[in-house]
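thread: overnight batch results

M.L. [08:02]
morning all. the overnight job finished for the chain we discussed friday. pasting input first so we're all looking at the same thing
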Amino acid sequence: MVESIAATSLLGHRPVCGRDLIRNKRKSLNKCAYFPATEFLGGRVIAFLPLPKSKEDGLSSSSIKVLAMELTKEAYSYREDRIPKKYTDKIDTGFDRRPGLWPPVNKADNPSLHNPLLRQERMGCGWLGVIFEWEGVLIEDNPDIEKQAWLALSQEEGKSPPPAFILKRIEGMKNEQAISEVLCWSRDPAELRRMANRKEEIHQALQGGIYRLRDGSKEFLSLLMQYNIPMALISTRPRKALESAIGTTGIEDNFSVIVAAEDVHRGKPDPEMFVYAAQLLNFIPERCIVFGNSNQSVEAAHDARMKCVAVASKHPVYELGAADLVVSHLNELSVVDLKNLADIESTEFGSGDPELELEEEEYSEPSSTLGAVDDSFW
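M.L. [08:03]
and the structure it wrote out:
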């Protein structure tokens, strides 16, 4: 019995009595060190030996330390091997208790969010917005009608007809902005408003209320609607004329935001219209893609920190090289192309490349004019 206990516990070891290890001697038991405290763990008896009071006995002290270390290893190994984990593990709070575990827990799958479709939405396309220009992008644009409207207005007002390079410069601007800043016909706000309205009346008369969608525009809008991508429409035309034109083409339900001439102070190349449309869409500019058809649109989009897709409707492809992407028709694009364009790089929060700091050369001015002269001269 004693030998079986000795194999697994300290109870079978000989009691420590000074310098002698005595067994089965009743008279010397009074001098022995008894085992004071015991603890039962899983049916096994573990005893804790008191430290010896005598510092001279190096042999007994070292033996006690060795036995204590073995006892500690034995106790902890028994706890880890025999005690079930369900009694030792703490309550799961959703945090990784073991740093470095891979793969990390996906926060989108956290059940406390109470939205099982949240991750699917993040993997979709609802995190980017699209801003369309009207003429030359969605509908066919006739540049001759715009030129004829300006020439007719100059004739009515008794002004000299604007040359071709001036007409190209005011392309995409608001009428009031073009009349006051480029044509310089008037500075009076009432006169500017009157001439701008008259120019739109002439343009609408020449247009005849006929609007035709470009090839692939309706299919592309349907694709964006299928993927729930928010869309905005901007134009320097008055809101009334713009809404009437959209209703004629039958795509009024595709746009959640419409920005017209009355909503902004300046037109292209100023980015005001694009920034305002992004605010109405509740997106940061880096998540928006602009669809334009001129270099003024590309310039305004880049100034607003947006990506720009140029549609080569009235300009050749080689003239639109500044755009992020150039297409002839909208149906050439896919949703993957839009997600790649709207993907924010590290440059959003500053460039990922380290900035090169120029070392300032130490330059000390001479104390006097004589000090700057070469000594060999003398």
